[in-house]
Design a protein that fits this description.
The complex is a heterodimer of chains A (about 90) and B (about 600). With about 90 residues, chain A is of the alpha+beta class. Chain A is built from 3 helices and 4 strands, in the order βαββαβα. In chain A, strands 1-4-2-3 form a 4-stranded antiparallel sheet, covered by helices on one side. The termini of chain A are far apart. Helix content of chain B is about 45%, strand content about 15%. The relative contact order of chain B is 0.10. Chain B starts with 20 loop residues before the first strand and ends in a 10-residue tail after the last helix. Classes of the chains: A alpha+beta (about 90), B alpha/beta (about 600). Chains A and B meet through helix 1, strand 3 and helix 2 of A and helix 3, helix 4 and helix 5 of B.
Chain lengths: ~90, ~600
Amino acid sequence: MPIKSAMPQIELKVMNKLGLHARPAAKIVETTKKFKSEITISKNDIQINAKSIMGVMMLAAEAGSTLIISAEGEDAQEALKEVAMMFERKFDEE
Amino acid sequence: MPIGLTGRTVKKTRRRKSGEIIVTGQAASPGVVIGRAFVIPYGIPNVPVKKLRADRVEEEIQRFRSALAATRNQLLQLQDNLKKKLSDNTIRIFDAHLQMIEDVMAVDQTIGLIREKRMGVEQAFTVTIDSIIRAIETQQQDQYLRERLEDIRDVERRVLENLLGICDISRIRMKSRVVLVAHDLTPTQTAQLERKFILGCATDVGGTTSHTAILSRALEIPSVVGLGDISERVESGDEIIVDGFSGRVVINPKHRTVEEYYSKEKQHKALESKLAELVSLPSNTIDGRFVELSANIEFPEEVTSVISHGAKGVGLFRTEFLYLTRESLPTEHEQYLAYADVARRLKPDPVIIRTLDAGADKFSSLFQSSPDPNPFLGNRAIRICLKHKDIFRTQLRALFRATVHGNIKILLPLISTIEELKKALAFMRKVRRELEVEKVPMAENVQIGIMIEVPSAALMAEEFVQYVDFISIGTNDLIQYVMAADRGNERVAAFYQPLNPAVIRLIHQVITAAKRNNIWVGVCGEMASYPHTALLLIGLGVDELSTSPTAIPRIKKIIRSISYQHARRVAEKVLSLNSVGKIKNYLLQEVEDIDKSIKGLYGE
């Protein structure tokens, strides 16, 4: 019997100097909304819907903080890939 | 402006009907008006509490969806209407609001509460928003994002207004002109102000650099901010006087006070129209010395006012507006558009654009996470730019690119050491070379100048002018650094003395150093905007005075009423006096002798 694979998730570090301030927050929402999958972000014990701007504001993710992004749905892998790229590019800010 | 974050039901304290009340705040935009108050209620409307019948749940959810859709359409329409009137930056405030209306978490939670708890939609929505705001408040340390909570409240208010059928400010049909009274005006509210219906503004909170203040100045609406609890003491329909010169507001004024203000207003209007005749005349002294008269502006929108008041160009274009009223750094392109726009409209007159002067009283979390313990002596202006070269580069690229559209000069703020100046100039050369390599068109010679506002630079002006094309004396900061007195602090206000002999001698020294080296010298602080101090500065030999657009006519009047020879004698005499009292009396007397009507120009 095949083992049901766990929900795909990745760990990302906030690398831009100013953390997830308003513009990156808006960008996360804009990007994740393109995907059908449910996408969540957790930091410590807070877990929020990545498609919610108020949720991302709640995270208060400063520079250097580690986030866990998980996605569930048909395009989960692509979604995670794109989110990872966005973090790596520091949201095109620097 | 952290307002209304916790106060859901703000109880109005009933005011005693009798008697005149004078409230003092900060003068934010000049002028005097008398009119009926229109109070914008502070806080969120009271929401009905009800338990839904099971068969009403879906209907209630539908109401919610319709209210969201209606709010969204109103915002889109508003945004569209204002596109012609306001800059892209102000318009962008609405984008954040639109994103919040569609917020999936807020919508899901609200619907969840309606379904599971059978709550009415109004209550479900406010409970949801409250819990979200509380969560953000406890988590979020970033001051800027915390301030964005106000946007969430703004959106909440709009949705509730649609659910409850209350009209918001944009839909109020004002029949007569009113004085707006509010706790604070949100950026979207301020953006909607219709000049023709608003006589003046009075708000509980805010300083002279707050959004309300800046916009009312741009729209030339007299206003006073920082009045404490004015929105609770005034009721719609009360008679109210807003004195944007002295920062005073009079509620239910006595007959005599009204008379006094009417005559003051009339006098002011008469003077204004008399001064308006000066608009097209040159700012020459009787004996033919040309003193450049230009304007200080904060927004591209103010160019209209610059022209209508008869200024020749802009002596100080502050660029903070691009950075401070928003959540992210402005791109090169949008800065370029703003600079080019102003330069093009004022061509061939010069436009002196100051590079970012953030920090001090203009803190933004875009540059650092917490304010300095002593912000005026902290990380600000050029110091921030030289630390965040990426931010500086973007602005410089935009500035250099815009130079092809008019007569742009670049001004560096808060220079305090030669090394710092050299570093800044070297970086500017580097950025210019990068653009050359990219074959970007630019004006050939772009003049670069510095603000003289730190005593270390003023004392060493002779050395500093060797490196620049011009200097502009920023008297506001210079005075407070020389006198060690914060001009915003009432407790030490008496020490903030523009006419202190030490200040005057230092300014004299700077101007002399500039003259000796054939360097153009202007003044862009408040000192340039009062007749008596302007008289002194002209006599000390400045080439230019730059003031707020509304002060231009009165300064032009004084320039055209004096001879340079006389102004020089006045300055000489002042330099021989040893106390601020003597100097002030002497200058005021001189100005009065020159023209009796000038006295009324002070407003007070």
